[in-house]
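pinned: reference chain
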Amino acid sequence: MLRGRFEAQRLGPLLEILQLSQAYQIPTFEEWLPPSPGLALVQKIDSDSESWISPSNTIGFIKAQRIGNESDLKLDAFLMKAKRAGWEIAGMPKEISGQIVAALKELESNIHEHSNSTGTGLIAFSAVNGIFEFVVCDQGIGLLNSLRECEAHNKITDHAMALRAALTDGTSRYGPDSQHGNGFRPIFKGLANLRGELRFRTGDHAMLLNGEHIDRATAQLVQKPNISGFLANVLCHCGRS
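pinned: its structure tokens
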């Protein structure tokens, strides 16, 4: 039914579907996704490209594993373009755009620290008039296995519990006194004055939050098909009509 008629309008679902496709749970993109910026991004991800940004600067990605001594400089250059897209294209205030991009950088570092599979990780953004969206994802060990490497979290027994725990400040595989586990704080800070939609995905569960004032206490947990690793999808409504 979907062949030739489906076109992804959101970056998050597109990359979540990509993870399912790479796990051979659904057909490959080329079989049903028509030409679009999203298809171009997926094709670049599947190639050997470390990063790619569309000529219009409205969509792009960078992989967590980058070759050479200038890896951090490549990331900084990518994030600068994402920040400009946030305020020039989406209409986000410059200060908030900076906060959101800081969250992107923090979540990218989490791939290196927690996924055990840096080579599968990437961050991506999309900007249109009034909306800025980003995704950070990997196909590593996932939140549950990562947290259970610490004895302090041995009571966390399923993916739903892992999602709730991971969004609590100070929770990480390194333990409660390690100064780690604050990677999601910049997201909630940046969204304080925006209407946002957040989706976190690991294992067989997704956690959903949305509204003008994001409150982690109101998060909804939904059971989903199993995926490897972790995916964070944040959509910011910037108030531009």
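why pinned: The helical segments are 11-22, 37-46, 71-88, 94-114, 142-147, 159-166, 185-190. Confidence is low (pLDDT under 50) at residues 1-8.
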